[in-house]
Write a structure and sequence with these properties.
Blueprint: E1 2-7, E2 15-20, E3 28-38, H1 40-47, E4 56-57, E5 61-69, E6 81-84, H2 94-97, E7 116-118, E8 123-124, E9 136-140, E10 144-146, H3 153-156, H4 162-173, E11 181-185, H5 189-201, E12 205-210, H6 216-222, E13 226-229, H7 234-241, E14 247-252, H8 257-266, E15 267-275, H9 289-295, E16 298-301, H10 309-321, E17 331-335, H11 340-348, E18 354-358
Parallel strand pairs: 11-12, 11-14, 12-13, 14-15, 15-16, 17-18
Antiparallel strand pairs: 1-2, 1-4, 2-7, 3-5, 3-9, 3-18, 5-6, 6-10, 7-8
Helix pairs in contact: 4-5, 7-8
Amino acid sequence: MIRAAVLPAVGSPLEITDIELPEPGPGQVRVRLAAAGVCHSDLSLSNGTMRVPVPAVLGHEGAGTVVSVGAGVTSVAPGDGVVLNWAPSCGTCHPCSLGEVWLCANALTGAANAHARTADGTVLHPGLNVAAFAEETVVPASCLLPAPDGVPLTDAALLGCAVLTGWGAVHHSARVRRGETVAVFGVGGVGLAALQAARIAGASEIVAVDVSAAKEDLARAAGATHFVLASETTAKDIRKLTGGHGVDVAVECVGRATTIRTAWDSTRRGGRTTVVGIGGKEQQVTFHALELFHWGRTLSGCVYGNSNPAEDLPVLAEHIRAGRLDLGALVTERITLEGIPGAFANMLAGKGGRALVVF
């Protein structure tokens, strides 16, 4: 038996309990977790904004050590450090055939599988494939990436979602160029990664926007040159900071209609807005036809940073080893499994950056 955070039903509190995890079958790998990040997507799963089969073990951002492997697994061996990849590409669907592996049509099919059982025999599903809110997990070998050399596994956990998403939003989706101006809306784990990515890309001015003034120091440490407290005048405030034009790129990491609209309004004519935040269906964003023509802006969604994890992790590892990317700067709280409900509450209240479950 191992300890895990279980979502018994949508809208129910998480239960920290013992579960029975099977040994890995063919093509599967058992991993002992070193750490798991608490992502806003986990909160979205718990409240029904995103749907997965329940009951489930949540958690999708993690890293650990291979304990054992099932038949046919040759890509990893016991003792290997690995990063969990919650959205493995199948390599055969239409998006994968186009090289858009982040849009793989089959990436989340594993979420419907039976993963483990509670003490009373209730079948549990693996959340977003990898069930990282547990001391150990069993996953398909395709859900594992080699942990970068020289990066502690507790830090490497953040590479599984926050860093890939924030980095990819800046480098792949928005394609920030040296000298451009950038605004990042939402200074959570992904937003902090996006701020660092914008700095690494050579952005000339980086504006961080958040509802909490307490996040200014976090934002500036990550690379922000300006901090704007979110208000009804946010777009005007950002234009004032950029010569009246607006920023070249806005990265929205919140997933609210008002924030998306403000991010759009904050960009210059011809600017680019990338939406990373996951909002519910009730979050309706409206534009009128004339402004779409007049402003010539681009609005795009961004899934998992439009990243190819197998290709991007080595690039990120080089930035980490060179000191350009600081994973520890994303973490504002280190907790146990029992601390996850409190981390959810902090996210709802707009407090802190990334909470990290350390095993």
